[in-house]
Amino acid sequence: MDPQDRYVMLLSSLPASERLFLAKQPPISRIKLERRLRVLSEEDAHTLAQVEAILNWGGLPMDTLDTDILAKAEAALQHIESGTLQSIVRHRLEMRTIIAALRRRKQGEGAPARGAVWGFGRVTSHIARNWTDPGFRLGPGFPWVRKAAQLLDDEDAVGFERLVLESAHRDLHRHDARHHFDFEAVVIYVLKWSIFDRWARAKAEDASKRFENLVAAGLGARAVLTFEGEA
């Protein structure tokens, strides 16, 4: 099958998603998505797996950036031919670097030492030089950082996660506008799926915690009755 026909067939079979924060779950289950992805060539499937392994937030903290992940990211970037996918990977890893820096600063740590391996990309040295600025003086490139810092200070974990996921989703949507029925569009769809999945999990965890708090407060049966209807 011609690669272009393969992409058209695959993307046409995938359901469109609702607005990110209105959807209660991804538009398709992971099992069904994996079945659709079987039409990818071995090479494309390998590239997708590499990108997901680096960027998937499903089972990792958002700011996970140890030396192993950084090394794998650098190695993967050497083999990813698509400029769009390289840009997506770099931007997401820089986001993780910023999040890691915000959390380190929140915990009272000082700026990373010069030469220390702690993050990814061009933002590391800039962040270290502007450690005391609320938004690290990252300006238009990362307009969400100052608000993210405030949400961390307020200990609003759900609000923080929502802001970060929204920013990642917006970056994917920007690339999506230039890709319709090609391999990049497939990867973008899968990465968007991961964001929907992450948000669904975050909301479920938040709801469970609120339910536990209601029960602990002695609301008993009323907690059970009102749980499903809470926003």
What would you say this structure looks like, in words?
The protein is mostly helical and 231 residues long. Helices cover 63% and strands 0% of the residues. The chain has one domain. The longest helix has 34 residues.
Write the SSE topology.
Elements (H helix, E strand, L loop, with lengths): L2 H11 L16 H7 L5 H14 L11 H13 L3 H24 L16 H7 L15 H9 L3 H20 L6 H34 L4 H7 L4
Helix pairs in contact: 3-4, 3-9, 5-7, 5-8, 7-8, 8-9, 9-10
Please provide a brief summary of the model.
With 231 residues, the protein is an all-alpha fold.
Order of helices and strands: HHHHHHHHHH
Biggest β-sheet strands, sense, barrel: none
Q: Look at the helices and sheets and give the structural class.
A: mainly alpha
Distance between the termini: 47 Å
- What is the average of the pLDDT values? 83
Considering DSSP H and I runs of 4 or more, what fraction of the residues is helical?
A: 55-70%
Strand content: under 5%
CA radius of gyration = 20 Å
Number of domains: 1
Silhouette? globular
Total count of helical runs of at least 4 residues: 10
List low-pLDDT spans.
220-231
Per DSSP E runs of 2 or more residues, the count of β-strands stands at 0
List keywords for this structure.
single chain, 231 residues, 10 helices, 63% helix
